[in-house]
Amino acid sequence: MSIPTQLSLHGYIATNPELTRSRNGVHRFRARIGVERFRKETDGSFTRLDSEYCDLVAFDTAAERAFARFRVGDSFVASGYVNAYETTRDGQPVTREEFVARRLGHDLTRTTYEVVRRQSAASDPAPPAVTEAIDHAIGF
Predict the structure, then answer these.
(1) How far is CA 98 from CA 53, 110, 118, in A?
(2) At residue 79, does pLDDT exceed 50?
(3) Cα(95)–Cα(87) distance, rounded to whole angstroms?
(4) Measured by CB atoms within 10 angstroms of the end CB, which terminus of the chain is less buried, N or C?
């Protein structure tokens, strides 16, 4: 059995997030994000390079929650996939890419916050370790 994995991405929110609706009414979160890059030097030190920028999107409930919680400068970790699409620029077709986040949360190594647990509807709530794992997995 192999471990089920997805692509992951970590970075920071570089522009004010937007929340829009698609033609069929699904919420869409969009923000331009920056990904910091570093080069390891021969002496073991690291040199910071220019950030790479791309679009980050999320849909449906994740979009609503992301819009309510993320601001410019926030560090995040996301898992999902890369979506390539065609658009036109100056009358010419251009292929662009965006990262579609299925899971999105603040980066614990760079963010301090308080976790507020949701109350379980079940009469026998999950053990704390399971609840913490679920909260961490969904990023909230």
Answers:
(1) 10, 23, 32
(2) yes
(3) 6
(4) N
